Amino acid sequence: MKKFLNLHKIPLLLFLSCCAFYLAFAYDLERSDFFKLLTLYAGLFFLSWKFFQLEKGDFRILLWTSILFRLIFLFSMPNLSQDFYRFIWDGKMLLEGLNPYLSTPQELFYRQEPPFAGAQELVNGMGSLSAGNFSNYPPLNQILFAIASFLGGKSILGAVVVMRIMIICGDLGIFYFGRKLLRKLNLPENRIFWYLLNPFIIIELTGNLHFEGVMIFFLLGALYFLQCQKWHLSATFLACSVWIKLLPLIFLPILFRWLGIKKALAYCAVVGIISLMVFLPFFSGEFLQNYLNTVALWFQKFEFNASIFYIIRWIGYRVEGYNILVFAGPVLAAVIFSSVVVMASLRRNMEMKGLLLSMFFSLSIYFFLASTIHPWYLATPLLLSIFTRYKFVQIWSLMVVVSYSAYSLPAYEENLWLIVLEYVVVFTVLGYEVLKRPKMGLNSNF
Hints:
Elements: H1 2-27, H2 34-55, H3 59-71, H4 83-95, H5 105-111, H6 119-131, H7 139-152, H8 156-184, H9 192-196, H10 199-207, H11 212-227, H12 231-242, H13 255-259, H14 261-279, H15 285-300, H16 308-319, H17 325-344, H18 352-369, H19 379-385, H20 392-399, H21 416-436
Helix pairs in contact: 1-2, 4-6, 4-7, 7-8, 8-11, 11-12, 12-14, 17-18, 18-19, 20-21
Protein backbone atom coordinates (compact mmCIF):
# COMPACT_ATOMS: atom_id res chain seq x y z
CA MET A 1 0.00 0.00 0.00
CA LYS A 2 2.82 2.40 0.86
CA LYS A 3 4.52 1.60 -2.44
CA PHE A 4 1.25 2.27 -4.30
CA LEU A 5 0.85 5.69 -2.66
CA ASN A 6 4.46 6.59 -3.43
CA LEU A 7 3.92 5.76 -7.10
CA HIS A 8 0.99 8.18 -7.26
CA LYS A 9 3.00 10.94 -5.62
CA ILE A 10 5.27 11.11 -8.66
CA PRO A 11 2.61 12.29 -11.19
CA LEU A 12 1.26 14.73 -8.59
CA LEU A 13 4.72 16.20 -8.05
CA LEU A 14 5.22 16.44 -11.83
CA PHE A 15 1.84 18.15 -12.21
CA LEU A 16 2.55 20.67 -9.43
CA SER A 17 6.02 21.35 -10.84
CA CYS A 18 4.53 22.02 -14.28
CA CYS A 19 2.00 24.38 -12.70
CA ALA A 20 4.78 26.28 -10.97
CA PHE A 21 6.78 26.54 -14.19
CA TYR A 22 3.75 27.70 -16.18
CA LEU A 23 2.92 30.30 -13.51
CA ALA A 24 6.45 31.65 -13.74
CA PHE A 25 6.23 31.64 -17.53
CA ALA A 26 2.88 33.43 -17.62
CA TYR A 27 3.35 36.05 -14.88
CA ASP A 28 7.06 36.44 -14.18
CA LEU A 29 8.92 36.32 -17.50
CA GLU A 30 10.11 38.98 -19.90
CA ARG A 31 10.99 38.08 -23.47
CA SER A 32 14.42 39.66 -23.11
CA ASP A 33 15.38 37.27 -20.29
CA PHE A 34 16.49 34.51 -22.63
CA PHE A 35 18.21 32.33 -20.02
CA LYS A 36 15.10 32.18 -17.85
CA LEU A 37 12.94 31.55 -20.91
CA LEU A 38 15.20 28.72 -22.03
CA THR A 39 15.35 26.99 -18.65
CA LEU A 40 11.60 27.22 -18.02
CA TYR A 41 10.86 25.94 -21.51
CA ALA A 42 13.28 23.01 -21.33
CA GLY A 43 12.07 22.14 -17.84
CA LEU A 44 8.46 22.08 -18.98
CA PHE A 45 9.29 19.75 -21.87
CA PHE A 46 10.97 17.28 -19.53
CA LEU A 47 8.26 17.42 -16.86
CA SER A 48 5.39 17.20 -19.35
CA TRP A 49 6.90 14.22 -21.16
CA LYS A 50 7.46 12.34 -17.91
CA PHE A 51 3.91 13.12 -16.81
CA PHE A 52 2.54 11.80 -20.10
CA GLN A 53 4.59 8.60 -19.78
CA LEU A 54 3.18 7.91 -16.32
CA GLU A 55 -0.46 8.79 -17.12
CA LYS A 56 -0.74 7.90 -20.82
CA GLY A 57 -3.51 5.39 -20.16
CA ASP A 58 -5.78 7.80 -18.28
CA PHE A 59 -7.50 10.11 -20.77
CA ARG A 60 -9.48 11.95 -18.13
CA ILE A 61 -6.37 12.99 -16.19
CA LEU A 62 -4.49 13.97 -19.35
CA LEU A 63 -7.39 16.05 -20.69
CA TRP A 64 -8.08 17.90 -17.44
CA THR A 65 -4.37 18.48 -16.94
CA SER A 66 -4.00 19.99 -20.41
CA ILE A 67 -6.99 22.28 -19.72
CA LEU A 68 -5.68 23.37 -16.31
CA PHE A 69 -2.26 24.20 -17.76
CA ARG A 70 -3.99 26.48 -20.27
CA LEU A 71 -6.17 28.14 -17.66
CA ILE A 72 -3.04 29.20 -15.76
CA PHE A 73 -2.46 31.73 -18.57
CA LEU A 74 -6.04 33.04 -18.55
CA PHE A 75 -5.42 36.44 -16.92
CA SER A 76 -1.85 36.99 -18.08
CA MET A 77 -0.70 39.32 -20.84
CA PRO A 78 1.20 37.60 -23.69
CA ASN A 79 4.92 38.05 -23.06
CA LEU A 80 6.57 36.49 -26.14
CA SER A 81 4.53 38.19 -28.85
CA GLN A 82 2.91 41.60 -29.30
CA ASP A 83 0.64 40.52 -32.17
CA PHE A 84 -2.39 40.60 -29.89
CA TYR A 85 -2.31 44.41 -29.94
CA ARG A 86 -2.86 44.26 -33.70
CA PHE A 87 -5.66 41.70 -33.23
CA ILE A 88 -7.48 44.07 -30.91
CA TRP A 89 -6.83 47.03 -33.24
CA ASP A 90 -8.38 45.18 -36.20
CA GLY A 91 -11.30 44.07 -34.05
CA LYS A 92 -12.01 47.60 -32.86
CA MET A 93 -11.78 48.87 -36.43
CA LEU A 94 -14.57 46.49 -37.41
CA LEU A 95 -16.66 47.58 -34.44
CA GLU A 96 -16.26 51.18 -35.61
CA GLY A 97 -17.52 50.19 -39.06
CA LEU A 98 -14.05 50.64 -40.63
CA ASN A 99 -12.38 48.20 -43.02
CA PRO A 100 -9.13 47.03 -41.34
CA TYR A 101 -7.59 46.19 -44.72
CA LEU A 102 -7.72 49.71 -46.21
CA SER A 103 -5.27 51.58 -43.99
CA THR A 104 -2.32 50.88 -41.75
CA PRO A 105 -2.57 51.83 -38.07
CA GLN A 106 0.14 54.45 -38.55
CA GLU A 107 -1.70 56.07 -41.47
CA LEU A 108 -5.00 56.14 -39.64
CA PHE A 109 -3.57 57.28 -36.33
CA TYR A 110 -1.20 59.99 -37.45
CA ARG A 111 -3.21 61.50 -40.33
CA GLN A 112 -6.45 62.07 -38.44
CA GLU A 113 -8.05 61.80 -35.04
CA PRO A 114 -7.66 58.38 -33.37
CA PRO A 115 -10.52 56.16 -34.63
CA PHE A 116 -11.40 54.89 -31.15
CA ALA A 117 -10.45 55.27 -27.50
CA GLY A 118 -7.21 53.54 -26.55
CA ALA A 119 -5.79 53.60 -30.08
CA GLN A 120 -2.49 55.11 -28.90
CA GLU A 121 -1.79 52.22 -26.52
CA LEU A 122 -2.51 49.64 -29.22
CA VAL A 123 -0.27 51.33 -31.81
CA ASN A 124 2.57 51.61 -29.31
CA GLY A 125 2.09 48.02 -28.22
CA MET A 126 2.05 46.40 -31.66
CA GLY A 127 5.33 48.01 -32.69
CA SER A 128 6.36 49.91 -35.82
CA LEU A 129 6.56 46.87 -38.12
CA SER A 130 2.95 45.82 -37.57
CA ALA A 131 1.67 49.39 -37.38
CA GLY A 132 3.33 50.25 -40.68
CA ASN A 133 1.78 47.40 -42.69
CA PHE A 134 -1.73 46.48 -43.76
CA SER A 135 -3.52 43.67 -41.96
CA ASN A 136 -2.89 40.18 -43.37
CA TYR A 137 -5.35 38.32 -41.12
CA PRO A 138 -8.18 36.67 -43.09
CA PRO A 139 -11.82 37.76 -42.59
CA LEU A 140 -13.00 34.99 -40.26
CA ASN A 141 -10.09 35.76 -37.98
CA GLN A 142 -11.07 39.44 -38.10
CA ILE A 143 -14.57 38.52 -36.95
CA LEU A 144 -13.11 36.69 -33.94
CA PHE A 145 -11.01 39.77 -33.18
CA ALA A 146 -14.14 41.92 -33.29
CA ILE A 147 -16.04 39.58 -30.95
CA ALA A 148 -13.15 39.62 -28.48
CA SER A 149 -12.87 43.41 -28.66
CA PHE A 150 -16.62 43.81 -28.13
CA LEU A 151 -16.81 41.41 -25.17
CA GLY A 152 -13.60 42.80 -23.71
CA GLY A 153 -14.98 46.33 -23.70
CA LYS A 154 -12.37 49.04 -23.14
CA SER A 155 -9.99 46.66 -21.40
CA ILE A 156 -7.09 45.15 -23.33
CA LEU A 157 -6.87 42.37 -20.77
CA GLY A 158 -10.58 41.71 -21.21
CA ALA A 159 -10.12 41.20 -24.97
CA VAL A 160 -7.08 39.01 -24.26
CA VAL A 161 -9.12 36.77 -21.93
CA VAL A 162 -11.87 36.36 -24.55
CA MET A 163 -9.36 35.45 -27.28
CA ARG A 164 -7.67 33.02 -24.93
CA ILE A 165 -10.99 31.28 -24.25
CA MET A 166 -11.56 31.02 -28.01
CA ILE A 167 -8.17 29.35 -28.49
CA ILE A 168 -8.77 26.94 -25.58
CA CYS A 169 -12.12 26.01 -27.15
CA GLY A 170 -10.24 25.37 -30.40
CA ASP A 171 -7.93 22.96 -28.56
CA LEU A 172 -10.93 21.12 -27.11
CA GLY A 173 -12.24 20.75 -30.65
CA ILE A 174 -8.85 19.40 -31.69
CA PHE A 175 -9.11 16.81 -28.92
CA TYR A 176 -12.57 15.81 -30.14
CA PHE A 177 -11.74 15.42 -33.84
CA GLY A 178 -8.16 14.26 -33.28
CA ARG A 179 -9.14 11.37 -31.03
CA LYS A 180 -11.93 10.28 -33.39
CA LEU A 181 -9.62 10.38 -36.42
CA LEU A 182 -6.87 8.46 -34.61
CA ARG A 183 -9.45 5.82 -33.67
CA LYS A 184 -10.65 5.53 -37.28
CA LEU A 185 -7.06 5.05 -38.45
CA ASN A 186 -6.35 2.41 -35.77
CA LEU A 187 -3.64 4.56 -34.20
CA PRO A 188 -3.13 5.01 -30.44
CA GLU A 189 -5.66 7.61 -29.30
CA ASN A 190 -3.37 9.04 -26.63
CA ARG A 191 -1.18 10.51 -29.39
CA ILE A 192 -3.49 13.52 -29.36
CA PHE A 193 -1.76 14.51 -26.11
CA TRP A 194 1.57 14.75 -27.94
CA TYR A 195 -0.07 17.93 -29.22
CA LEU A 196 -2.29 19.02 -26.32
CA LEU A 197 0.33 18.56 -23.58
CA ASN A 198 3.24 19.92 -25.59
CA PRO A 199 4.47 23.07 -23.75
CA PHE A 200 5.17 24.68 -27.13
CA ILE A 201 1.46 24.52 -28.01
CA ILE A 202 0.30 25.73 -24.60
CA ILE A 203 2.76 28.64 -24.53
CA GLU A 204 2.60 29.79 -28.15
CA LEU A 205 -1.13 29.40 -28.76
CA THR A 206 -2.91 29.79 -25.42
CA GLY A 207 -0.19 31.91 -23.83
CA ASN A 208 0.68 34.16 -26.75
CA LEU A 209 -2.70 34.20 -28.50
CA HIS A 210 -1.88 32.78 -31.90
CA PHE A 211 -4.95 31.48 -33.69
CA GLU A 212 -3.22 28.51 -35.34
CA GLY A 213 -5.12 26.31 -32.88
CA VAL A 214 -8.50 27.53 -34.17
CA MET A 215 -7.30 27.03 -37.74
CA ILE A 216 -6.16 23.49 -36.91
CA PHE A 217 -9.53 22.70 -35.31
CA PHE A 218 -11.30 23.44 -38.59
CA LEU A 219 -8.59 21.65 -40.61
CA LEU A 220 -8.86 18.53 -38.45
CA GLY A 221 -12.65 18.66 -38.74
CA ALA A 222 -12.27 18.82 -42.52
CA LEU A 223 -10.03 15.73 -42.50
CA TYR A 224 -12.35 13.82 -40.20
CA PHE A 225 -15.40 14.48 -42.36
CA LEU A 226 -13.35 13.62 -45.44
CA GLN A 227 -12.59 10.23 -43.86
CA CYS A 228 -16.33 9.86 -43.17
CA GLN A 229 -17.09 10.53 -46.87
CA LYS A 230 -18.93 13.77 -46.01
CA TRP A 231 -17.04 15.93 -48.47
CA HIS A 232 -19.50 18.87 -48.46
CA LEU A 233 -19.10 19.25 -44.70
CA SER A 234 -15.34 18.73 -45.07
CA ALA A 235 -15.13 21.54 -47.65
CA THR A 236 -17.06 23.86 -45.33
CA PHE A 237 -14.64 23.19 -42.47
CA LEU A 238 -11.62 23.63 -44.75
CA ALA A 239 -12.96 26.99 -45.95
CA CYS A 240 -13.31 28.13 -42.33
CA SER A 241 -9.75 26.95 -41.67
CA VAL A 242 -8.42 28.93 -44.64
CA TRP A 243 -10.15 32.10 -43.51
CA ILE A 244 -8.57 31.87 -40.09
CA LYS A 245 -5.13 31.42 -41.69
CA LEU A 246 -4.35 30.99 -45.40
CA LEU A 247 -1.95 28.11 -44.80
CA PRO A 248 -4.41 25.21 -45.50
CA LEU A 249 -4.67 26.34 -49.14
CA ILE A 250 -1.44 24.44 -49.66
CA PHE A 251 -3.33 21.18 -49.09
CA LEU A 252 -5.99 21.58 -51.79
CA PRO A 253 -3.96 19.95 -54.63
CA ILE A 254 -3.22 16.95 -52.40
CA LEU A 255 -6.94 16.17 -52.09
CA PHE A 256 -7.38 15.47 -55.82
CA ARG A 257 -6.18 11.85 -55.60
CA TRP A 258 -8.53 11.14 -52.71
CA LEU A 259 -11.60 12.79 -54.24
CA GLY A 260 -11.07 12.28 -57.95
CA ILE A 261 -11.05 15.17 -60.41
CA LYS A 262 -14.81 15.86 -60.61
CA LYS A 263 -15.46 15.70 -56.89
CA ALA A 264 -12.24 17.61 -56.15
CA LEU A 265 -13.34 20.45 -58.43
CA ALA A 266 -16.72 20.51 -56.68
CA TYR A 267 -14.88 20.51 -53.32
CA CYS A 268 -12.78 23.50 -54.40
CA ALA A 269 -15.92 25.22 -55.67
CA VAL A 270 -17.54 24.90 -52.22
CA VAL A 271 -14.41 26.31 -50.59
CA GLY A 272 -14.38 29.13 -53.15
CA ILE A 273 -18.06 30.03 -52.73
CA ILE A 274 -17.78 30.14 -48.93
CA SER A 275 -14.60 32.20 -49.25
CA LEU A 276 -16.36 34.66 -51.54
CA MET A 277 -19.21 35.02 -49.05
CA VAL A 278 -16.75 35.71 -46.22
CA PHE A 279 -14.72 38.19 -48.27
CA LEU A 280 -17.58 40.17 -49.82
CA PRO A 281 -18.11 42.58 -46.89
CA PHE A 282 -14.46 43.64 -47.12
CA PHE A 283 -13.98 43.52 -50.88
CA SER A 284 -12.74 46.41 -53.00
CA GLY A 285 -9.95 46.94 -55.49
CA GLU A 286 -7.87 48.71 -52.87
CA PHE A 287 -8.43 45.87 -50.41
CA LEU A 288 -7.24 43.25 -52.92
CA GLN A 289 -4.09 45.19 -53.75
CA ASN A 290 -3.24 45.87 -50.10
CA TYR A 291 -3.86 42.27 -49.07
CA LEU A 292 -1.81 40.70 -51.88
CA ASN A 293 1.06 43.14 -51.29
CA THR A 294 1.08 42.31 -47.57
CA VAL A 295 1.10 38.55 -48.18
CA ALA A 296 3.94 39.01 -50.70
CA LEU A 297 6.10 40.57 -47.98
CA TRP A 298 6.54 37.11 -46.42
CA PHE A 299 8.37 36.00 -49.57
CA GLN A 300 10.17 39.22 -50.46
CA LYS A 301 11.10 41.09 -47.26
CA PHE A 302 10.66 39.32 -43.93
CA GLU A 303 13.38 37.03 -42.54
CA PHE A 304 13.38 35.14 -39.25
CA ASN A 305 14.59 31.74 -38.04
CA ALA A 306 15.00 30.31 -41.55
CA SER A 307 17.06 27.23 -42.41
CA ILE A 308 17.81 26.56 -46.09
CA PHE A 309 17.01 30.15 -47.02
CA TYR A 310 19.76 31.45 -44.72
CA ILE A 311 22.25 29.25 -46.57
CA ILE A 312 21.01 30.69 -49.88
CA ARG A 313 21.25 34.20 -48.43
CA TRP A 314 24.84 33.55 -47.32
CA ILE A 315 25.74 32.33 -50.81
CA GLY A 316 24.06 35.41 -52.28
CA TYR A 317 26.19 37.73 -50.17
CA ARG A 318 29.33 35.89 -51.24
CA VAL A 319 28.47 35.82 -54.95
CA GLU A 320 26.37 38.94 -55.52
CA GLY A 321 27.35 41.03 -52.51
CA TYR A 322 23.80 41.71 -51.28
CA ASN A 323 20.70 40.02 -49.86
CA ILE A 324 18.95 38.19 -52.70
CA LEU A 325 15.64 37.65 -50.87
CA VAL A 326 13.68 39.70 -53.40
CA PHE A 327 14.82 37.28 -56.14
CA ALA A 328 15.13 34.07 -54.15
CA GLY A 329 11.70 34.41 -52.50
CA PRO A 330 9.61 33.87 -55.67
CA VAL A 331 11.95 31.08 -56.81
CA LEU A 332 11.59 29.26 -53.49
CA ALA A 333 7.81 29.76 -53.68
CA ALA A 334 7.86 28.07 -57.10
CA VAL A 335 9.91 25.19 -55.69
CA ILE A 336 7.43 24.79 -52.84
CA PHE A 337 4.51 24.75 -55.28
CA SER A 338 6.28 22.14 -57.41
CA SER A 339 6.92 19.93 -54.38
CA VAL A 340 3.23 20.12 -53.43
CA VAL A 341 2.27 19.09 -56.98
CA VAL A 342 4.61 16.11 -56.74
CA MET A 343 3.14 15.15 -53.36
CA ALA A 344 -0.35 15.49 -54.83
CA SER A 345 0.43 12.97 -57.56
CA LEU A 346 1.33 10.12 -55.19
CA ARG A 347 -0.98 7.11 -55.09
CA ARG A 348 -0.79 6.90 -51.31
CA ASN A 349 -3.11 9.93 -51.17
CA MET A 350 -6.02 7.61 -51.95
CA GLU A 351 -5.88 6.49 -48.29
CA MET A 352 -6.16 8.82 -45.30
CA LYS A 353 -2.86 7.75 -43.74
CA GLY A 354 -1.04 8.45 -46.99
CA LEU A 355 -2.91 11.72 -47.45
CA LEU A 356 -1.87 12.89 -43.98
CA LEU A 357 1.73 11.92 -44.67
CA SER A 358 1.75 13.92 -47.92
CA MET A 359 0.27 16.93 -46.15
CA PHE A 360 2.86 16.61 -43.39
CA PHE A 361 5.83 16.53 -45.75
CA SER A 362 4.44 19.24 -48.05
CA LEU A 363 4.20 21.58 -45.09
CA SER A 364 7.62 20.54 -43.79
CA ILE A 365 9.22 21.31 -47.16
CA TYR A 366 7.49 24.68 -47.18
CA PHE A 367 8.84 25.57 -43.75
CA PHE A 368 12.35 24.35 -44.56
CA LEU A 369 12.45 26.68 -47.60
CA ALA A 370 10.61 29.67 -46.13
CA SER A 371 12.43 32.88 -45.20
CA THR A 372 10.34 33.40 -42.06
CA ILE A 373 9.53 30.74 -39.47
CA HIS A 374 7.97 32.17 -36.35
CA PRO A 375 7.76 29.50 -33.63
CA TRP A 376 3.96 29.22 -33.67
CA TYR A 377 4.02 28.23 -37.36
CA LEU A 378 5.08 24.74 -36.25
CA ALA A 379 1.71 24.00 -34.64
CA THR A 380 0.20 22.59 -37.87
CA PRO A 381 3.00 20.16 -38.81
CA LEU A 382 3.20 19.16 -35.14
CA LEU A 383 -0.47 18.17 -35.20
CA LEU A 384 -0.07 16.28 -38.49
CA SER A 385 2.96 14.44 -37.10
CA ILE A 386 0.83 12.57 -34.55
CA PHE A 387 -0.61 10.57 -37.46
CA THR A 388 2.86 9.55 -38.68
CA ARG A 389 5.99 7.85 -37.41
CA TYR A 390 8.05 11.03 -37.72
CA LYS A 391 9.11 12.86 -34.57
CA PHE A 392 11.44 15.53 -35.92
CA VAL A 393 8.79 18.26 -35.62
CA GLN A 394 8.35 17.40 -31.95
CA ILE A 395 12.09 17.93 -31.54
CA TRP A 396 11.77 21.10 -33.62
CA SER A 397 9.08 22.40 -31.25
CA LEU A 398 11.65 22.05 -28.46
CA MET A 399 14.57 23.58 -30.35
CA VAL A 400 12.63 26.51 -31.84
CA VAL A 401 12.82 28.36 -28.52
CA VAL A 402 16.39 29.39 -29.39
CA SER A 403 14.96 31.79 -31.98
CA TYR A 404 13.84 34.00 -29.08
CA SER A 405 17.48 34.83 -28.42
CA ALA A 406 16.93 37.62 -30.99
CA TYR A 407 14.91 39.53 -28.39
CA SER A 408 17.56 39.33 -25.67
CA LEU A 409 19.44 42.30 -27.16
CA PRO A 410 18.02 45.83 -27.54
CA ALA A 411 19.14 45.90 -31.19
CA TYR A 412 17.08 42.77 -32.02
CA GLU A 413 19.67 40.57 -33.67
CA GLU A 414 19.44 36.84 -34.34
CA ASN A 415 22.16 34.62 -32.91
CA LEU A 416 22.91 32.62 -36.05
CA TRP A 417 24.98 30.08 -34.15
CA LEU A 418 21.89 29.14 -32.15
CA ILE A 419 19.83 28.98 -35.35
CA VAL A 420 22.47 26.64 -36.80
CA LEU A 421 22.23 24.50 -33.66
CA GLU A 422 18.43 24.38 -33.96
CA TYR A 423 18.48 23.11 -37.54
CA VAL A 424 21.45 20.78 -37.13
CA VAL A 425 19.47 18.95 -34.45
CA VAL A 426 16.24 18.98 -36.50
CA PHE A 427 17.86 17.79 -39.73
CA THR A 428 19.86 15.16 -37.87
CA VAL A 429 16.68 13.67 -36.42
CA LEU A 430 14.95 13.93 -39.80
CA GLY A 431 17.90 12.29 -41.54
CA TYR A 432 17.89 9.43 -39.05
CA GLU A 433 14.17 8.87 -39.46
CA VAL A 434 14.28 8.95 -43.27
CA LEU A 435 17.57 7.18 -43.99
CA LYS A 436 18.12 4.80 -41.10
CA ARG A 437 14.54 3.60 -40.70
CA PRO A 438 13.19 3.37 -44.26
CA LYS A 439 10.43 0.92 -43.31
CA MET A 440 8.95 3.00 -40.52
CA GLY A 441 5.65 3.52 -42.31
CA LEU A 442 2.45 4.84 -40.91
CA ASN A 443 1.11 1.38 -40.11
CA SER A 444 3.82 0.47 -37.60
CA ASN A 445 3.58 1.10 -33.89
CA PHE A 446 6.04 3.13 -31.82
